[in-house]
Amino acid sequence: MFIGHYAVGFAAKKWAPKTSLAVLFGAAIWLDIVWPIFVMLGLERFLVAPGITRMSPFDFIDYPLSHSLVMAVAWGIGFGLIYLLTENDTKTALILGGLVVSHWFLDLIVHRPDLPIFPSEMNVTGVVHKYGFGLWNFPGWELLIEFGLFAAGVWIYAKSTKESKPWGNLGLAGLVFFLAAFFIASLKMTVPNNTNGLVFFGQLLTIIFLFLGYWVDDNRKSV
Ligand SMILES: [Zn+2]
Fold first, then answer.
1. Per the CB 3.0–4.6 Å rule, which of 11, 21, 41, 165 could disulfide with 219?
2. How does DSSP classify residue 20?
3. Which ranges constitute the DSSP H helices of the chain?
4. 129 pLDDT band (50/70/90 cuts)?
5. Residues at Cβ < 5 Å from ligand 1 ion
6. Can you give the pTM of this predicted structure?
C-alpha cells in the first residue's frame, strides 16, 4: 500500500482541521518512516525478490520493530502522546494515533502473510504467525481499492479546505498527480537489487512528499 496511506492522511484533515497535512501524512506513513532506519541499522531485513507478488517485488523477511501490530499500537500511542503533550489537544492526538495504527491494517490487505502481531519472533510453540491477505497478487482489486481510497481521501480533503494563497488549488492538484504518477511508475519500474539504496531513495521521496504536504496545506485553509 502506498497512496492508500496518504489517502487516510488527506481524509483526516476534516476531523483535524488545525493540523498540517504533513503531520497527518507523517502519522499515516510512520511505520514506513521508521522502517528504512531499522533496515539501515541492520535491525530489519528485506530482499528484492522479483515475482514474489505480482505487484510488489519485496520480500519482507523480518520487520518486527516497524511492522508488528503490537509495535504499530506502541508507535501510535507514542505519536499521539507527543502531540498531546505539545499541543494539548486530545481529539487530534487520538486521530494521529489512529492514523499510525491504520497503516498496519492497510498493509494487511495487500501484503503476503509477512506481518507479525508481536515484535518478538519467539513464542511458546516456536511457530511464528504472520498475516497478510495478499492483494498484491490481484492487481485489479488492489488498484481498485487503493485508487478508491486515494480518490475518497483527496475528495474529503478538497471539500474540507479551500485555497487561501495563490498556489492552494494548483499545488494540491500537483501533489495528487505526483503521488499517483509515482505509484503507477513504481509498478512499472525494474527495482534494483540494492536494499540500502532503495530505503535511502524511499526515505528521500518521503521527505519530499511530507514537504509538499506541508506546502500545499499552508496554501489552503479549513472551511
Ligand atoms: Zn508499511
1. 165
2. -
3. 3-12, 21-28, 30-40, 64-67, 69-87, 90-110, 139-160, 168-188, 195-218
4. confident
5. 31-32, 107
6. 0.95
**Residue-number span of the structural domain to which 136 is assigned:** 3-222
Question: What's the gap in Å between 66 CA and the centre of ligand 1?
Answer: 8
Q: Could you tell me the three cell numbers for 118?
A: 508481536
Calculate how far, in angstroms, residue 160's C-alpha sits from the geometric centre of ligand 1: 27
Q: Is the dihedral of CA 13, 16, 18, 23 positive or negative?
A: negative
- The HSE-up count of residue 50 (CA atoms within 13 Å, CB side) is 8
Measured CA to CA, the distance from residue 117 to residue 151 in angstroms comes to 30
Q: How far is the CA of 202 from the centre of ligand 1 (A)?
A: 12
Distance 35 CA to ligand 1 centre (A): 8
CA of 118 to the centre of ligand 1 (A): 16
Ligand 1 centroid distance, CA of 167 (Å): 31
Q: What is the pLDDT of residues 25-73, one digit of tens each?
A: 999 999 999 999 999 999 999 999 999 999 999 999 999 999 999 999 9
- C-alpha torsion angle, residues 75, 79, 85, 89 (rounded to 10): -130
**Ligand 1 centroid to 104 CA: how many Å?**
7
Residue 17 CA to ligand 1 centre (angstroms): 25
- Owner of C-alpha cell 504467525: 129
d(CA 59, CA 223): 43
Q: Which residue has the cell 518486527?
A: 64
